[in-house]
Amino acid sequence: MEQTRPALSPVPVVHLRGAVALLGRFPALAGVDLDIEARRIVLLRGANGAGKTTLLRTLAGLVPVAGGEAVVLGVDLVADPRAVRHRVGLLGHATGLYDELTVGDNVRFWARAAGADPADVERALTRLGLDGRLRTVAVGRLSAGQRRRTSLACLIARRPELWLLDEPHAGLDQEGRDLVDTLVREAVAAGATVVLSSHELDRSLQLADSVITVAGGVVRPDPSPAPGANDGDAR
Amino acid sequence: MTTQLDAAPEGLDSTGSRGTRVLGVLAIVGLAALALFGLVLSPPDASQGEVVRILYVHVPSATFAYIGCFLTTIGSAMFLWRRSAWWELVAYASAEIATVFTAIVLVTGMIWGRPTWGVFWVWDARLTSTAMLLLLLLGYLAVRRLPADHDVRTKRSAIIGLLLVPNVIIVRQSVQWWRTLHQKPTLLANGVGAKIEGLMLFSLFIGFIAIGLVFAWLLIHRFRLAWLEDQLDDAGLDAAIAERRSEGEPS
Amino acid sequence: MIRDALLIAGKDLRLELRSRVALNQVLPFALLVLVLFAFALDPDKSVLTQATPGLYWIAVLFSALLALQRSFAIEATDGNRDALRLSGLDPAGIFLGKVMAVSAQLLVLEALLGVGVAVLYTSRIEGWILLAVTSVVATASIAAAGTLYGVLAAGLRVRETLLPLLLLPVLAPVLIGSTRAFEAALNGSPSEGWPWVGLMSIFASLYVVAGIFGFGPLLEES
Fold first, then answer.
1. A213 membership: H or E segment, kind and range
2. Among B152, B251, C116, C179, fewest CB within 10 Å belongs to which?
3. To which H or E segment does residue A194 belong?
């Protein structure tokens, strides 16, 4: 697989034209047009059920594209959605961790599955503040915020080219939210691209370069977003 | 989720056609001929007596049950290989009809066995493997009819369908060894394997034709019904997309 | 593929070491089944001793169902299925890893259950080589077919009821084969047992191949 640096690649990191994604028979994405350039931080906003999560999962290659064009990191998702998966990192509502295994076991397993360097595992654990006592605690005994940190550690150990963060601030304390923002900026500085959805609009608008409004399974043209306006379903 | 299904699917709008009606009439004629030859014209068997008449239904049913299983496996393979929805429906329709035919085989076999062997059931290799076949088919149908997403059901049932014939072969082989290692297969000596000729052979021949026509007729109708059901599901998609887009319109 | 298989098998076995579900729940269940057979069949007549191979493999089969349910239950929580799909692991490797982990647990269970049978049913144990080979081949068959049908049933609301319906008829040849091979070994006529080992080897191969090719498409559906 050619390792084009995202910054130099001629094609945008995300290129969707009329992309339709079905959940069962329900068109969760009803024809999305979206282009995202490399090293951008893009905020998705929209009401619950607008299609933000499905959009992120589609970009990760988890939800098949039933119609239209979809190219992510140069991979045609219509033809082969699997090829993009190991190059993206998705942080969803579910953490994807094994409750009975320890924090260290979990991060090591998912990092090794992605072929990551053992040194990256240590770095990720330290970066998320999980290298102390927490390292040997079973994930099932963690608080929601600690689980989220573990999940983030798995993500950064994999060094993905495209970060897809579904409400990364949810369930974290002030310190944790600041850490998320720092990690996002570091990732972009290192060449990655970030797409996130968040209901923490004040915080996210400071972080993001651009804002995209999703409603009814499509992207709405919305050039001048007013912070916090008309998005009344904060969790 | 609400999808609008008021638009009638185009093209095929009934499971019947001129061809299937002719086939249906032929099947009825075949069954009438089978009744005539099987019940009236053919003589009772020298050793089995009148009971032999049930074999004119039993043996052809078993044959077509197996044909249905092969169609299920072939259809599943073609679906997995070529993504052909047409073959998937062939597999599903065949499996359903093969299940009915396997049940007929078991019931007629037991009715035949009661006067012949004195009991409804013996742990004979053929009986046992037929019962296992029925259970394997029920497993396939259980997955194909799951209340789950269409793609989930078809893909999972296709894997089971693909393994159906290999499973049947291995089950048959193991059951055969299981019985023959312990007792000689004496029961079949005066059973299905016995030589038949003349009018009795002709009656069996009529049985194959009549049951075959019934099988074909059922298969075509079941296939078309399943196809129409799929059409109905697909018809709502454009409307559903329009409806979904309108959710986000500022009112 | 092998690297991924070992990674998954290691993870599953580590998880078992930490949670001890197989040890604390499945093994006692298997022993309980042995005791229940003694209640159902008169232990004073030699029925139990005569039927030992069959009862033993029935107990293994039911325990295997529990072990398989467990093997997929750990992947069913909190988005692990998505995480596996995103991980970049080869689906064939995931399949083989799961088969290895289930096989390892079942082999330990079978050894302990064998001791239980020898003590509880006072069965004489002979023909060690045939017994051991039969156990390995039958276990591989159960684990391979069970893992394939396990992922077929995984992610469905009805998985607990569906798996036995799908799996037990398919495993009938393995039950027959392992039971006859054990009988042959215990009766001191091992030559009658080896054809069954051959049949089960074909069975195991069929399901390993089917799993290697079928696991990927099945993992995709959720």
1. strand A210-215
2. B251
3. strand A193-197
Q: What is the pLDDT of residue A124?
A: 92
pTM of the model: 0.87
Give contacts of B131 with chain C, Cβ < 8 Å: none
**Which residues 12-71 on chain C approach chain A with CB closer than 8 angstroms?**
14-15, 18-19
Q: Do A26 and B245 touch (CB under 8 A)?
A: no
- Residue B136 belongs to a domain: yes
Range of the domain at C86: 2-220
C-alpha to C-alpha distance for A202 and A234, rounded to whole angstroms: 12
Handedness of CA C69, C74, C77, C83 (dihedral sign): negative
CB proximity list for C82: less than 8 A, separation 6 or greater: A57, A62, A90, A92, A94, A96, C222
Amino acid at A123: R
| pLDDT reported for residue B40 | 83
Beta carbons of B146 and C158 less than 8 Å apart = yes
Q: What span, in angstroms and rounded, lies between the C-alpha atoms of C139 and C141? A: 5
**Are C88 and A113 within 8 A, CB to CB?**
yes
Q: What is the pLDDT of residues B73-122, one digit of tens each?
A: 999 999 988 888 899 999 999 999 999 999 999 999 999 888 888 888 88
Owning domain of residue B113: 20-42+49-229
Q: How far apart are the first and last CA of chain A?
A: 41
- The ipTM of this complex is 0.88
The predicted-structure confidence for B140-183, as pLDDT tens digits, reads as follows 999 999 887 888 888 899 999 999 999 999 998 888 888 765 44
| Collapsed DSSP state (helix, strand, coil) of residue C155 | coil
Distance from CA of B230 to the nearest CA of A (A): 12
- Per-position DSSP letters for B48-67, written without gaps between them: TBGGGGGHHHHHHHHHHHHH
Cβ contact, residue pair A113, C77, below 8 Å: no
- Please give the structure tokens belonging to residue B34: 């089978």
Chain B contact for A30 (CB, 8 A cutoff): yes
Rounded to the nearest 5°, which phi and psi values hold at A36? -130, 125
Give domain status of residue B75, yes or no. Answer: yes
Selection from C30, C63, C54 nearest residue C172 by Cα: C54
Query: In angstroms, rounded to a whole number, what is the distance separating the alpha carbons of residues B78 and C157?
Result: 28
Handedness of CA B84, B90, B93, B97 (dihedral sign): negative
Quickly count: other Cβ atoms within 10 Å of residue B160's Cβ: 27
Q: Which helix (H) or strand (E) holds A91?
A: strand A88-91
Distance CA C204, CA C185 (A): 21
Using an 8 Å CB-CB cutoff, list chain C residues near B178: 176, 180
Q: What is the CATH number of domain A39-62+79-220?
A: 3.40.50.300
Mean pLDDT of C160-167: 92
C217 and B163 within 8 Å at the Cβ level: the answer is no
Q: How far is C141 from chain B (nearest CA, A)?
A: 13
Burial of residue B216 (CB within 10 Å: 0-12, 13-18, 19+) is middle
B171-183 pLDDT, tens digit each: 988 888 887 654 4
As a whole number of Å, the end-to-end CA separation of chain C is: 23
Chain C nearest-CA residue for B171: C173
C83 touches chain A (CB under 8 A): yes
- Average pLDDT rounded to a whole number, residues C11-23: 91
Residue B84 maps to a domain: yes
Q: How confident is the model at residue C46, as a pLDDT?
A: 79
Integer CA distances (angstroms), A235 to A198, A200, C122, in order: 10, 9, 65
Residues of A within 8 A of B248 (CB-CB) are: 46, 50, 214-218, 220
Interface check A86 vs C, CB under 8 A: yes
> Which residues of chain A does C7 touch, with a Cβ-Cβ cutoff of 8 Å?
109, 112-113
